[in-house]
Amino acid sequence: MTEQSVTVAGSPVGGEIVTGAAPQDGTPDSRVSVKPKNNRAWLLVLPVVVSVAFTAVIPLMTVVNFSVQDIFSPDDRIFVGLEWFRSVARDPEIRAAFVRTLLFSAQVLLLEIPLGVALAVAMPRRGVWVSVALVIVALPLLIPWNVVGTIWQIFARADIGLGGWTINNVLGIDFNYTLDSTDAWITVLIMDIWHWTPLVALLAYAGLRSIPDPYFQAAQIDGASAWSTFRHIQLPRLRGVLTIAILLRFMDSFMIYTEPFVVTGGGPGNATSFLSILLSKVAVGQFDLGPAGAFSLLYFLVVQIVSYVFFTVLTRSGR
Amino acid sequence: MALVLDGVRVRQRGETWLHDIHLELSSGMTTLVGPMAAGKTTLMRVVGGLLPPDAGRVVVNGKDVTAISVRKRSVAFVYQQFINYPSLSVYENIASPLRMARSFPKKDIDRRVREVAEIMGIGDLLDRRPAELSGGQQQRTAIARALARPVDVLLLDEPLANLDFKLREQLRSDLKNMFLDSPGVVLYSTADPAEALTFASPTVVLGEGRVLDVGDVADMYAQPPTLAVAATLSDPPLNLLPGVVREGRIECLGSSFPSPGAHASGRNVVLAVRPHQVTIQRSGAGVLEFPAEIRLAEVTGSSTFLHLLLVDGRHLVAQLPGPQLFTPGERAMAYVDPAHIFVFDEAGGRLLATSAAEVDLHG
Question: CATH assignment of A92-316?
Fold first, then answer.
């Protein structure tokens, strides 16, 4: 049997050596190719560069431009250096709004993340109820923001709103968000939870769905409780999506504007004056473009820094 | 220790996945071999209690456990994917089934974990997390998890399928030694006939949701009762050729050989021959000759798989020893000794005859 190779094998010398990977027809492929160099790639990137410059870089630079000048009219402007930054950073009203916004974001994260995860765990994994549950959960996300504000503005009113009326007349609690600061705060917070917990739930649900069934079966076979199944199988798998959920919810709640603007207009007093509401007052209301520019840049910087810290901490933990 | 499946039937999404399975398994290892979608995993899930059968009973040690929930059964399961708790160390992973089992004495946990980790060769990895391990080590951890708690039924569902070649070979021999004389029932499923033949344990061949054969795997390999069993146990795949019985001989593509059994003339048959029984050198008188054209030669190192195109457009694969060089497009002659041909009837795929010259694996 060993001399077999000689008989039908043909002439190995000069003949094509064919192995499994080679083309069947035996055409020799050109192994060495010289790549012609050209700059065509730049042409392909150009539309992106132009549109990003047009929509993001140039407007941002305009804001930077405003922030270092005192502008009386388009022809009459004075360079003031970091003066506006100093005054914005020292402004007690802005500082109070900053603390208020930070507190709001912290409460949003502490409530929406666990609630969203709980909702996702409770949602059915398969069957006809999956689509029903998805639609119901996703519903608040489909409503325009100012409509959400309007819904809650009416819903929470003590006189004609179902929610407000129920709290006052059925539960017997004195509740009026137009007069009481705490009531206004709670109204805006619950509205945000109602509006945005579904986003966390959907993200978490997607993460949970990606866990293969055998993990749950293995836990069942071990006799693991629902809590240990969550703790040791589901939660570790959710780290990625929760990182995204926390970042999104932080950035969004820290920049919240529309809904409180519609519901409370920042009041009563300053109770729900978040940074964005204050900023729009300075920029659009008073047309103080210099301070508003400095305010915007500091605002932007804070969002960037906090998001960076969250991202670093969340992606490093558990490694 | 014994496991009995009595008329187990499973229907899912309008399809029957298991057709009235009757099986009796005793303690020690049983290999369940079958191609993809044969129902191996379904059968294992029924035995484990993860999937309630639509009909039939599962009896362990004389006790009907069909309706008992998986949490209360004495089973362990090893999956094709490497299933471990990602947030726990290897030590905690192995310990977790012991901690959950209330009957297991707490003071023995540490000793038992170290014992099985040592058996599985992961004794020095106990502090690592699963993500820090190689695939082979992850699967060793998963098997250790399953071994830790003494159970009536241990199920291994293609545990080596996702491992690369070398790790598979190594773990295969470890598992053979470990499970062959296990006090409980060990059911090991695989799609790889080489695994079934290596384990040489009692074997169940499964195909399309039915038990095709039960018995000694070497006997089944030498004398496959049906074409399906022969195909399941042959890797590389069988060569199939059409034949007709004519006056005591079987004709096939212009060659003929004496029919090993008496069959009616004009009967269509299927001839099956394993690639390693096809040669390109005449080995003696009476062999079948097939003129062919060389299409492709795959060199794997220890063998060369020569793909031949026969005159009627059929393909024939010859497994030749060692690396050999061929020129595609050249003519060649393929030879098959009739002694190595299995003759199956065309309709039912049952074995009609073989000259039974296959090497006796027991010898």
Answer: 1.10.3720.10
Contact partners, residue A264, CB within 8 Å, separation at least 6: A177, A178, A184, A187, A188, A271, A272
**In whole angstroms, what is the distance from residue B27 CA to residue B48 CA?**
16
CB B231 within 8 A of CB B238: yes
Q: Which residues of B touch A232 (CB under 8 A)?
A: 85-88, 96
Nearest to A20 among B298, B322, B333 (CB): B298
Strands B315-321 and B303-310: antiparallel
A134 CB burial (10 A radius; 0-12, 13-18, 19+): middle
Indicate the range of A7-21, A58-72, B51-65, B336-350 predicted with least confidence. A7-21
The CA–CA distances, whole Å, from B201 to B223, B340, B355 equal: 17, 25, 26
CA triplet A120, A136, A158: central angle to 5 degrees? 105
Give Cβ neighbours of residue B267 (< 8 Å, ≥ 6 apart). Answer: B244, B245, B345, B346
Residues of B whose CB is below 8 A from A12: 325
What pLDDT digit, counting tens, does each position of A184-238 carry?
899 999 999 999 999 999 999 999 998 988 899 888 888 888 888 898 889 988 9
- Please report, for chain A, the start and end positions of each structural domain, with discontinuous segments joined by +: 39-81, 92-316
φ, ψ of residue A307 to 5 degrees: the values are: -60, -40
Please tell me which of the candidates B50, B75, B326 has its beta carbon nearest to residue A9.
Answer: B326
Model pTM?
0.73
Query: Which ipTM did the prediction report?
Result: 0.74
- Could you give the angle at which helices A58-67 and A289-316 cross, rounded to 10 degrees? 120
Query: Is A214 within 8 Å of chain B by CB?
Result: yes
Contact A24 B83 (CB under 8 A): no
Rounded mean pLDDT for each run of 10 residues along chain B, 363 residues in total: 89 89 90 91 91 91 88 88 90 89 83 89 91 89 89 91 83 83 88 89 91 91 90 90 86 84 80 91 82 91 92 90 90 89 83 57 41
**If residue B33 lies in a helix (H) or strand (E), which one and from where to where?**
strand B28-33
Q: Which of A10, A212, A217 is the closest to B330 by Cβ?
A: A10
Q: For residue B89, give the chain A residue with the closest CA.
A: A232
